[in-house]
UniProtKB/TrEMBL annotation:
This is Uncharacterized protein. Keywords: Coiled coil, Membrane, Transmembrane, Transmembrane helix. Residues 1-20 are annotated as: Disordered. Residues 85-140 form a coiled coil. Residues 1-11 have a biased composition (Polar residues). The chain crosses the membrane at residues 29-50. The keyword Coiled coil applies.
Length: 145
């Protein structure tokens, strides 16, 4: 080996030959990578939380609206049933009164019915006799004039 007797000073050498101390560049890069991961995870968690909250609000609103509509339909149904019941009772009362009147007429006709003579025939013959007497009276009046 050669010994020239010249000491080399590392600061006197050009930059290409000088050994540089290695710096740890991992620290800031690792920090930014962790920061980005935390931000992404926070965004995902926030989006999930927000979507769950909106879903709960929508489902509670839908449930409330459905309950209101069901209550309105139940009231309408109850009103219609009540109206039908009252109409049915009125019609039933009318039918009962008609049936009672018919029963009274049948009872009256049964009591007045004579097996030997017919009432309508009696009335017709009596009416014919009255007409005959009326025509005789007219003739008598004409004679008197």
């Amino acid at each position: 080996m050669r010994d020239t007797g010249v000491e080399t000073n590392p600061s006197a050498l050009p930059d290409t030959y000088r050994e540089r101390p290695r710096r740890k560049r991992r620290g800031p890069a690792l920090f930014f990578a962790i920061l980005w991961l935390v931000l992404i995870a926070g965004g995902v968690y926030g989006a999930k939380w927000y979507s769950d909250r909106i879903q709960q609000q929508v489902s509670s609103d839908l449930e409330r609206q459905t309950a209101g509509q069901i209550a309105l339909m139940q009231q309408d149904f109850d009103a219609r049933i009540t109206k039908m019941e009252t109409d049915y009772q009125v019609q039933l009362a009318q039918m009962e009164s008609k049936i009672q009147a018919l029963n009274e007429l049948l009872t009256f006709a049964k009591d007045n019915a004579d097996t030997k003579t017919d009432n309508s025939n009696k009335l017709y013959t009596q009416l014919a006799e009255v007409k005959k007497q009326l025509s005789e009276l007219k003739k008598s009046l004409d004679v008197l004039k």
